[in-house]
Amino acid sequence: MNRRILTVASGAVQQLRGIKKHPFPVTFENVVFPPNGQMKLPSMPTEPFYDAEKGEYKYKTTKRMIEARGVEEIHTDLIHKQYGLAAISGGFISSADFKFLEDRINKNLIDKQFAIWRVDPPWLPRTKKAQGTRLGGGKGSIQKYVTPVRANRIILEVGGHITEVEARAFLMYLCERFSFPAEFVSEEILQERRQEEARIRANNTNKFDWDKVIKYNMQNCTSWLSNYDIMWRGKYK
């Protein structure tokens, strides 16, 4: 019995004395820094600049919800191939949201890390009437300006000498700031998502898809489908 205990104990000691395996250190050989050398997020203006000499002036308009409808077709890739935030569905970003993101992200960036905006400064006016004002009398005064974004739009990017764990640590909770759903994305996540979509399209054996249903007007669907359903195949609203 004692011999057996000694044998087990000696085997445990040999495992403890074995070579410890450590993960390979992360290298940043392919990192591309911004060409202008600006590492921090710049401040977004709260309102657009109007040149009076050119006849530009402030104007009031409707909410223009169409600006946030559908899917983004251009700004869907990460320029620096690292990490960022992307919109899941359309919405509007206010100047207060830009200020909050700027303060939080610039505070968390350390040496050889950078962040860039991928959206335009606020340009769409939002009007509001004073409290207690009677109905009628036209639109109220301009309260603020917002930036519309569509689904899959890259909002900002973070890169440099930073790992995915570090980027997730201070980007995930920023998604709760937006009035629309947003998500953390990386170059690897986007590539895997596109490969999975291509695999599903290639291996799909279902004969009934949006293209065939619309082409043959099954169950008279074109009479109740909107133009946006036909354009985006029912995926976006």
Automatic annotation (TrEMBL):
Pfam families for the chain: Ribosomal_L16
Example GO BP: mitochondrial translation
Highest rank taxon of the organism: Eukaryota
GO-annotated cellular components: mitochondrial large ribosomal subunit
Keyword presence, Glycoprotein: no
CDD domains with a match to the protein in the record: Ribosomal_L16_L10e
Keywords assigned by UniProt, alphabetized: Ribonucleoprotein, Ribosomal protein
Keyword Ribonucleoprotein appears in the UniProt entry: yes
Signal peptide segment: none
UniProt GO MF annotations: rRNA binding; structural constituent of ribosome
Record InterPro entries: Ribosomal_uL16, Ribosomal_uL16_bact-type, Ribosomal_uL16_dom, Ribosomal_uL16_sf
Annotated family: Belongs to the universal ribosomal protein uL16 family.
Protein name, per record: Large ribosomal subunit protein uL16m
Origin species: Steinernema hermaphroditum
